[in-house]
Amino acid sequence: MFNLDQAVGEWRRQMLAAGIKTPVPLEELESHLRDDIERQLTSGLNAQQAFETAVQRIGGANEIRSEFKKTCGTKCQAKLSWQLAWMGSFGLVLTVILNSAGLFVFHRSSSVFFSHEWWSAWFPSYTVWMIFTLGGLAIGYNNWRLRRNAARNSV
Amino acid sequence: MYSVSMLKKELVAASTEPLILSLLSRGESYGYAIIQDLKARSQEDIQWTDGMLYPVLHRMESNGWIKSRWVEMENGRKRKYYSIKKDGKHALDKQREQWMKVHSVLTGLWGENYV
């Protein structure tokens, strides 16, 4: 005996397995699927036929996921840029705090800014965090520029 | 992206945004209703794989052209409704101009051919 809720549950599992995320966009796709099933049922199909027709119409999970990946584009870039910039800034601040603690609390000669030992002990850390920060800002700026140009062209 | 019987898929793809914006400029709607409306208006000549509408809607939402909200129906199910924003109306005006330009050029050319 065909169980519609079970079939929809299985369809959801297949979508999740293919990489369609929940709640967005899976909830919306399920809502669409159920709307279509309802319509097929009122047109005279039985539950199984209605489900199969609706699944076929909505399309394959891989196909949908690949379209969503294209959509991600600038939005995902913006997220990445902020993550990099925040991580870099946090690392820089932490390095400054540790460097200062080494200098003022532990009186380490290697913590004296721009001393001979400082360059090998602390400079690499500053460089890495600086790269993260500047990289994030550069990606963010590029993303902002692309979005601005896209908005100018479309509006 | 699209399974198209009558219109070429490139033409359907190019017209997707203005079609959606035009429908939403008439009022709030949701994915399934948008597809049904477009199919009915085109006498089924515009055929989409239904799931492909949502990436387009989400992209238009990230562009700031449309906005969405979840609405709970009487049967307890939820539907995501989309409505057009000010930037969407500007984008639609721009796209309408461009489509009318193409329409006018083609009409002129075909008019000359058939005179």
What's this model, at a glance?
The complex is a heterodimer of chains A (155) and B (115). By secondary structure, chain A is mainly alpha-helical. Chain A has helices at 4-17, 26-42, 47-58, 61-105, 116-121, 123-154.
Tally of contiguous helical segments of chain A:
6
The number of domains of chain A is 2
Return Rg of chain B in Å. Answer: 16 Å
Percent in strands of chain B: 5-15%
Sequence of secondary-structure elements of chain A: HHHHHH
Q: Would you spell out the secondary-structure blueprint of this structure?
A:
The complex is a heterodimer of chains A (155) and B (115).
Chain A: H1 4-17, H2 26-42, H3 47-58, H4 61-105, H5 116-121, H6 123-154
Helix pairs in contact in A: 1-3, 2-3, 4-6
Chain B: H1 9-25, E1 29-30, H2 31-41, H3 53-62, E2 66-72, E3 78-84, H4 86-114
Antiparallel strand pairs in B: 1-3, 2-3
Describe the structure.
The complex is a heterodimer of chains A (155) and B (115). By secondary structure, chain A is mainly α. Chain A has 2 domains: 4-59, no CATH class; 73-154. Chain A contains 6 helices and no strands. Chain B has 115 residues and is of the alpha+beta class. Chain B has one domain (9-114): Arc Repressor Mutant, subunit A (Orthogonal Bundle). Helix content of chain B is 58%, strand content 14%. Chain B has 4 helices and 3 strands; from the N terminus they run αβααββα. Chain B has helices at 9-25, 31-41, 53-62, 86-114, and strands at 29-30, 66-72, 78-84. Chain B has a 3-stranded antiparallel sheet. The longest helix of chain B has 29 residues, at 86-114. The mean pLDDT of chain B is 90. The interface between A and B is medium-sized, with 26 and 25 residues.
